[in-house]
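ok trying this again, last paste got cut off
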Amino acid sequence: MTPHRRKLIDRLAVLLLLLISFSPDFAVAGRDEHQAAKDNEGTAELETQLTEKPTLSALVTYAYQGSPAIKAARADWRAAIEKYRVDTALDDPELMLEGMYMDDLYRDPSRPNDWQVTITQALPLPGRLAKAGRVATTEAVIARLRLDSVVRDTTTSIRETYQELLYLREAKRLAAASREQLDQLRKAGETATSDRAALIDIMKAQAQSGQLQYDALLLQESERTEQTRLNSILNRDPDAPIGELADEPMLAMVYSLPEIYPLAESNLEEIRIARASIAKAQDAADLTRYDTLPQFKLGLAYGDINQAQQVKVQAGFSLPLGFGKRAGRLGMAAAEVEKMRAMQNVQINETRSVIHDTYFRLQNSERLVRLYRDDLIPQANRAMQTAEIWFKEGQGSFSDYTETASVWYNFHLALARAKADYGKFLAKMESLTGHSLTELNSNKRSDESEKAK
């Protein structure tokens, strides 16, 4: 190859590369790669945060990016959107080639073989494709609502798991502190005189210490199980570490039960899906009426018949003579509309029942938190101080001290359990209403201000 030809080829290659680089597909691919790099960088930052000190918002963001359930629902939504183009398009035209071949024994040598090419197109009645488009649009809306429900359920599961992990880690801390305190008391009792620490009291303290150690093991295993559950929601390795969790403040709910019902009926995805399903069934019933009417078809034929070139125009329509079949299809469509309306009522009634049950559990957990936090635990703290003073001054027994410490531990454990339950029930209630229940929206604030004036 001559140097001149090699130089020409090099210039053509550079020109081709420039043309490719400026093409739309190449530009889109470059943007996709850039966006993928940014997503990977953001995921790496979130992974580091989850390992060190995750927040609830970081966990939800990580799940939204990597949850397989959310990805599947998002893909289903995209498929429903693409289905609109399929349902609103005309049927594919039909092309037919016809020919007549005769053997030389019977064919007139002066006549060529006959042939014909025909193309036909089915034409829907005016308005049918528009109605099919409305059905497809409603299906896309339903698919989007299902995606929202998956995101909602995933977020609720993360919030519930977060609260459970907070409880388990707090319970582990309480068990370790109580066992350490009990071991110190037991050692002090073993060195004390027999009238202050009887043998039976020492044995009770040893048994109680062993029970606390067993509780710590159970709590450790429960924490691992809950951590594995959280990692499965996030699409992480089952044994991936979860860092120290930030404590979530306990916010009071400011909505009453009668105010919660309308919120759920307006925002809950399952009720909105049921409402959209009624509209879809009604549009599908209208579409069924189009399918029971005659369907038209046009055709164009060109060929050589009897040594003459011919062009033919064809027109035809179907004959819906099956009156029973037509009535059956219309009846099925009407029954589907009635069914969807009934299913909406079922969904609303079930939602109200779940809301009432969750509201009761939420209120009960709040009452328990107030009871332990404001009443029982302060009493237990004072009792611990008194028992410790009496024990050191020889006025109280070792058994009284250990029993008081056990009550103190159980009260703190019950408070941690009630706080976690409150957080879990609040997460469930907010998922049912699709609304934050711990703060009033601005419109309601302004309305209440006007009423107060």
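PB: full thing came through this time. DSSP finds eleven helices and four strands in the chain.
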